[in-house]
Amino acid sequence: QVQLVESGGGLVQAGGSLRLSCAASGRTFSTYLMGWFRQAPGKERDIVASISWSGDIIYYADSVKGRFTIFRDNAKNTVYLQMNKLKPEDTAVYYCAAKQWSGLSRIFTRQNEYDYWGQGTQVTVSS
After folding, report:
1. pLDDT for the residue numbered 26
2. Whether the predicted pLDDT of 10 surpasses 90
3. CA–CA separation, 21 vs 78, rounded Å?
4. How far apart are the C-alpha atoms of 20 and 70, rounded to whole Å?
5. How far from each other are the two terminal CA atoms of the chain, in whole angstroms?
6. Which of 7-11, 69-73, 98-102 has the weakest average pLDDT?
7. What is the bridge-based pairing of β-strands 10-13 and 121-126?
8. What span, in angstroms and rounded, lies between the C-alpha atoms of 38 and 28?
9. Which of 7, 31, 50, 75 is the most exposed place for a label (fewest CB within 10 A)?
10. How far apart are CA 63 and CA 61, in angstroms?
11. Concatenated DSSP letters for 76-112?
12. Are 49 and 64 contacting, i.e. CB atoms less than 8 angstroms apart?
């Protein structure tokens, strides 16, 4: 079992930056691949970014490429999402997710592939 707690959301003007953090409990964080998803009102929950357990494979949704960066610190059991050049369309609840994976390094992009979820943190970008 792992528990995930997100933080760092808030209100920011368009063009601004936020850094989301997701702290995980447990001693086996380094064996989990991690993902960030987001869900806007009335829309489905979509992948934003994913990072393999070793950090050597990273995926970004096209809508955030060049603006968002996912990275992890296994010593701190934490994964981050640095969000720059924010746009109003980035407004959503952002969720951290974890999947235990002991196979070859890879990432997953579908929400039903993840085992654990955080409670979500609201990000609101004003125009």
Report:
1. 78
2. yes
3. 7
4. 9
5. 40
6. 98-102
7. parallel
8. 25
9. 75
10. 5
11. GTEEEEEE-S--GGG-EEEEEEEEE--SSS-----GG
12. yes
pLDDT at residue number 31: 87
Of the CA atoms within 13 Å of residue 78, those in its CB half-sphere come to 14
Kind and range of the H or E run holding 50? strand 46-51
State mean pLDDT over 51-78.
Answer: 96
List Cβ neighbours of 42 (8 Å cut-off, separation of 6 or more). Answer: none
Q: What is the pLDDT of residue 35?
A: 97
- Total length of the chain: 127
The conformational region for residue 10 under phi > 0 = left, psi -120 to 50 = alpha, else beta, is left
Q: Higher model confidence: residue 28 or residue 126?
A: 126
Measured in whole angstroms, the distance separating CA 11 from the mean position of its chain's CA atoms is 18
Rounded to 5°, the CA angle 88-93-94 comes to 100
Contact 24, 98 (CB under 8 A): yes
